[in-house]
Task: inverse folding
C-alpha cells in the first residue's frame, strides 16, 4: 500500500509511455516540424520587413535583416530538433541573435568574431547613439546607417523569438499576428503610401503559413504517431486566417486617423492629421532630394531686396543633436514691442515692414524677418523668446495667419565686426556650451584653422573660408552612402573626415567650432526669399508691394555668431550654395586682397541685409511639434509603445504560459486517446494548485481526489457543482486505469465517454465560482503552478551543483577512507 501510491504519484508527474506508439515520449521522432515552422516564422517576419522599405532608404539594410532572422530561426529549430527544453530553445535564440549581430556589426572587436567583448560594448554604445540621432533627426525614409540597421536587425530578431514563443511553447499560433502587426505599425504610420501591397501580401502569406503548420503538425511528442498530422484541422487554420485578413482590411475603415484610400496601399494611420509646415524634425537632405514643395507662404515687403523669413533658432546642443530651447518660463506675450535685450552700437539701423500670409504652412513657430520689433494681426496667443526673438504659439499654430511684422537690423561691415570683437558679456551659457564627448577631430580642426587669427571676426572668417574651400564638396549623397546623414557629434566627426556633405553639416561644423574658439553660436532655421508671384499686396501706409512666395524647397539653416555691440550675425559656410553677405566676403576683411565669395555676383547691390541664401531643407530638431511629416515624431512614440508592450508582455507572461499549457493539454485530448489521460490528470493537479489546493508530495491520486471533493473548491455535491464532482471522480478513475490497469468490477466512474476537455472546463468553472476574487485573480495572472515550475527551473542549476558537491565530498571521503585503511594495515602488521 505504501509503494503503490509513490509509483502512482510519479506517473502523474511524468507520464512514461504511450500504449499506442509503444515508445518512450522522449524517443519520439521530431521530424520536419521544427524546420517547417522555423521557415514559416522566418518568411513571415522577412515578409513584414519588406514594408520597411520607405521607412529605411533603399535596400542595403535588407540583407543583414535576412541573415539575422534566419540565423535565429534555424538555431531555435536545431535546438528543438535535438529535443531541448523550451527555455533552452529560447535562450539559444537570444544567443544566436547576439552572435549574428556581433558577427555582422562588431566583428573586429568581438571574441572570435561572435562573442561580445568590452570593446564591443563601447562600439554598441556608439551604434545606439547613431541610431538615436537618426530617429530624432530624420523623417522617413531615414538613412540606413550602421546604427539604425543594427537596431532594426535586433528588433526583428527579438520579434522572431516572440513569434516562435507564441507559436510553439505557448501553443497560441493565432496570436503571432500581433508580432507581425507590430512590424507593420511603423510603415502604416510613417510612410505616406502606408504599408504597401507587396509587404502586406508577404506578411499575410507568412501568417497563414504559421497557422497551417501549427494545425498540420502536432508539436507535442506525447501525441501518438498516427495523429501527428491532422489535415482535418486545416479548416480551422483557414477560418482563422480569413477572419484575421478580413478584419485587417475592414477595421481601418472604422478607425479615426486613417487617411482616405484602400488599406494597405493607400490608407495609413495618421492620428496627427496633415500639416505642411517647416518641420525641424526633417533633415535638410530629405527636403533637398524631394523636387516638390509644401507649405506655401506669401509675403510682401518694403525692403529693397527679397528677405529671409526666420522661423526658429536652435541653440541647445547635447552632442546627439541640435534642438531649440524654448525657455517657456521666460517667454513673453506678443502684445507690445519686442526688444533684442542687448546694446546695438552700429551707426545705422535699417527698418522694414513685411506683410505675411502663411496659408497652409503649419508650425508652432511663426516665420518673421529678423529681428522683429512688433507684430500685428495675429490670431490666438503668441509668445516670443528674449534670448532668440523666436515667436511661438501658446495655444495655436501658424496655419492661415495674416500679420504685419516690423523688423530692424544694424548695417554691418567687416570693419565694424572686426572692431566689435571684444569679450562677450551677458550671453547665456546655452550659446557657448560644448558637449564633453567632443571628438578629437573637431577640436583639432578648429585649433588648426583659427591658429593665426587674432579676433573673433577673424576666427569666424577662417572657419567659413576653410569650410568653403576646395577641400570640401557639396553632396547630398555622400552622407547617405557614408552613413553620417544627421547632425550629431559622431556625424560631425565623419563629415570633417570625409569633407563632403550639405547644409546641415556645414552649419553644425561652423557653430561647434565657433563655440570652441569662444564665440557664442546658434543655428537659424528659415526660408530663402523665394520667387515673385506677379501679384501685388496693398499694405496700409506702404502702398502696393510686390508679392513673393516660398515653400519647403526654400527652407534652409545657417549659423549665427554673436558679436558684442552688434548682436547675432549670420554667416554662410556651405560651398556652392547660398550667398555670402558683403561683410563676410574675403575681400571685405581688412588688409585681405583675396576673395572668398564665389557667388558675390548674386549679392544684390547696396543690400546691407544680405544673409545666407538658404538651400531648400528643414533642420532636424527633436520635440518641436507638428510639421510636414509625422514620421520622425512617430518613431520615438513607437519605441515607447514597444517598450510598454514588452513590459505588458512580461507582466502577463505567467498567464500566457498557463493558457498555452492548458491549450496544448486539451488539444491533445481531442480526439480522446490513452496518451491524453495523464495530460488531463496533470491539468487537474495544476488547477488545484492554482486555486490554493496543491497535491502533497506523497499523496495518492485517490487521496488527492477525495481531498478536492471535500474542499470548498467544488462546493456541495448536487446542483451545478455535481458535474465538477463527477469530473474529478472520472478523471481520477481514468488515470488509475491508465497507470495500473482496469479497476475492480463495479468501481464507479472507471470509464467516462465525456471528453476530458469538457470535464476540465466544468471543474475549472466550479473552482472559479467557489473562491474569492483575489484568489481568482491570482489563479489567472500569477498561477502558482507556473511560478512553482519556474522556481524549480531557476534553482535547478543550484540543486545540481549541490548534488555534485555532495557526491564529490562523499567520493573524496570514501577515497580517503580507503587510503587511510591501506596505511593502517602495514602498521598493524
Result:
Amino acid at each position: 500500500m505504501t509503494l503503490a501510491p509513490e509509483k502512482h504519484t510519479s506517473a502523474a508527474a511524468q507520464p512514461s509511455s504511450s500504449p499506442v506508439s509503444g515508445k518512450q515520449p522522449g524517443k519520439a521522432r521530431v521530424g520536419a516540424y521544427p524546420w517547417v515552422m522555423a521557415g514559416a516564422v522566418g518568411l513571415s517576419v522577412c515578409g513584414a520587413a519588406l514594408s520597411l522599405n520607405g521607412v529605411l532608404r533603399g535596400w542595403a539594410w535588407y540583407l543583414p535583416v535576412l541573415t539575422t532572422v534566419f540565423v535565429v530561426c534555424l538555431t531555435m529549430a536545431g535546438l528543438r530538433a535535438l529535443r531541448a527544453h523550451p527555455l533552452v530553445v529560447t535562450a539559444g535564440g537570444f544567443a544566436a541573435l547576439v552572435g549574428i549581430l556581433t558577427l555582422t556589426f562588431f566583428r573586429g572587436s568581438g571574441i572570435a568574431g561572435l562573442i561580445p567583448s568590452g570593446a564591443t560594448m563601447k562600439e554598441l554604445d556608439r551604434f545606439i547613439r547613431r541610431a538615436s540621432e537618426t530617429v530624432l533627426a530624420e523623417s522617413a525614409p531615414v538613412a540606413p546607417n550602421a546604427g539604425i540597421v543594427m537596431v532594426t536587425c535586433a528588433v526583428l530578431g527579438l520579434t522572431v523569438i516572440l513569434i516562435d514563443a507564441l507559436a510553439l511553447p505557448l501553443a497560441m499560433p493565432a496570436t503571432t499576428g500581433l508580432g507581425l502587426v507590430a512590424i507593420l505599425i511603423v510603415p502604416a504610420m510613417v510612410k505616406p503610401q502606408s504599408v504597401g501591397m507587396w509587404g502586406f501580401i508577404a506578411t499575410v502569406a507568412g501568417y497563414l503559413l504559421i497557422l497551417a503548420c501549427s494545425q498540420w503538425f502536432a508539436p507535442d511528442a506525447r501525441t501518438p504517431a498516427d495523429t501527428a498530422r491532422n489535415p482535418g484541422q486545416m479548416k480551422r487554420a483557414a477560418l482563422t486566417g480569413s477572419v484575421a485578413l478580413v478584419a485587417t482590411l475592414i477595421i481601418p475603415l472604422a478607425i479615426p486617423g486613417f487617411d482616405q484610400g484602400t488599406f494597405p496601399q493607400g490608407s495609413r494611420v495618421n492620428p496627427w492629421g496633415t500639416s505642411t509646415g517647416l518641420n525641424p524634425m526633417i533633415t535638410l537632405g530629405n527636403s533637398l532630394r524631394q523636387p516638390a514643395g509644401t507649405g506655401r507662404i506669401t509675403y510682401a515687403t518694403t525692403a529693397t531686396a527679397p528677405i529671409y523669413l526666420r522661423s526658429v533658432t536652435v541653440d541647445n546642443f547635447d552632442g546627439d543633436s541640435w534642438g531649440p530651447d524654448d525657455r517657456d518660463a521666460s517667454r513673453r506675450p506678443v502684445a507690445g514691442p519686442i526688444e533684442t535685450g542687448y546694446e546695438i552700437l552700429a551707426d545705422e539701423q535699417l527698418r522694414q515692414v513685411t506683410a505675411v500670409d502663411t496659408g497652409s504652412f503649419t508650425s508652432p513657430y511663426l516665420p518673421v524677418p529678423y529681428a522683429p520689433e512688433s507684430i500685428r494681426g495675429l490670431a490666438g496667443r503668441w509668445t516670443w523668446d528674449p534670448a532668440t526673438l523666436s515667436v511661438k504659439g501658446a495655444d495655436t499654430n501658424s496655419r492661415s495667419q495674416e500679420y504685419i511684422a516690423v523688423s530692424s537690423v544694424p548695417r554691418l561691415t567687416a570693419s565694424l565686426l572686426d572692431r566689435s570683437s571684444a569679450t562677450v558679456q551677458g550671453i547665456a551659457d546655452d550659446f557657448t556650451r560644448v558637449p564633453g564627448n567632443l571628438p578629437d577631430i573637431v577640436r583639432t580642426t578648429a585649433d588648426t584653422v583659427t591658429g593665426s587669427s587674432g579676433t573673433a571676426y577673424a576666427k569666424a572668417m577662417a572657419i567659413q573660408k576653410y569650410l568653403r574651400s576646395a577641400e570640401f564638396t557639396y553632396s547630398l549623397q555622400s552622407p547617405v552612402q557614408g552613413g553620417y546623414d544627421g547632425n550629431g557629434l559622431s556625424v560631425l566627426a565623419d563629415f570633417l573626415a570625409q569633407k563632403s556633405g550639405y547644409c546641415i553639416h556645414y552649419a553644425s561644423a561652423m557653430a561647434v567650432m565657433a563655440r570652441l574658439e569662444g564665440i557664442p553660436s546658434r543655428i537659424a532655421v528659415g526660408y530663402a526669399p523665394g520667387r515673385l508671384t506677379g501679384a501685388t499686396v496693398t499694405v496700409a501706409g506702404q502702398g502696393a508691394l510686390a508679392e513673393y512666395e516660398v515653400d519647403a524647397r526654400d527652407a534652409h539653416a545657417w549659423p549665427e555668431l554673436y558679436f558684442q555691440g552688434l548682436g547675432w550675425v549670420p554667416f554662410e559656410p556651405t560651398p556652392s550654395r547660398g550667398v555670402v553677405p558683403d561683410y563676410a566676403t574675403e575681400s571685405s576683411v581688412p588688409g585681405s586682397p583675396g576673395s572668398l565669395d564665389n557667388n558675390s555676383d548674386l549679392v544684390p547691390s547696396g543690400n546691407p541685409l544680405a544673409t545666407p541664401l538658404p538651400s531648400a531643407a528643414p533642420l532636424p530638431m527633436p520635440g518641436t511639434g507638428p510639421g510636414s511629416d509625422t514620421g520622425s515624431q512617430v518613431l520615438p512614440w513607437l519605441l515607447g509603445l514597444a517598450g510598454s508592450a514588452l513590459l505588458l508582455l512580461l507582466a502577463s507572461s505567467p498567464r500566457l504560459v498557463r493558457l498555452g499549457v492548458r491549450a496544448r493539454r486539451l488539444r491533445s485530448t481531442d480526439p480522446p486517446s490513452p496518451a491524453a489521460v495523464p495530460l488531463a490528470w496533470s491539468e487537474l493537479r495544476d488547477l488545484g494548485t492554482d486555486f490554493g489546493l496543491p497535491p502533497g508530495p506523497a499523496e495518492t491520486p485517490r487521496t488527492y481526489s477525495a481531498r478536492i471533493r471535500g474542499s470548498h473548491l467544488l462546493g456541495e455535491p448536487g446542483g451545478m457543482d455535481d458535474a465538477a464532482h463527477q469530473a474529478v471522480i472520472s478523471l481520477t478513475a481514468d488515470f488509475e486505469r491508465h497507470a495500473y490497469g482496469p479497476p475492480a468490477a463495479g468501481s464507479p466512474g472507471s470509464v467516462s465517454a465525456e471528453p476530458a476537455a469538457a470535464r476540465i472546463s466544468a471543474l475549472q468553472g466550479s473552482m472559479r465560482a467557489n473562491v474569492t476574487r483575489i484568489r481568482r485573480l491570482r489563479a489567472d495572472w500569477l498561477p502558482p503552478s507556473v511560478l512553482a515550475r519556474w522556481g524549480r527551473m531557476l534553482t535547478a542549476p543550484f540543486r545540481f551543483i549541490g548534488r555534485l558537491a555532495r557526491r564529490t565530498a562523499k567520493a573524496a571521503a570514501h577515497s580517503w577512507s580507503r587510503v587511510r585503511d591501506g596505511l593502517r594495515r602495514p602498521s598493524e602488521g
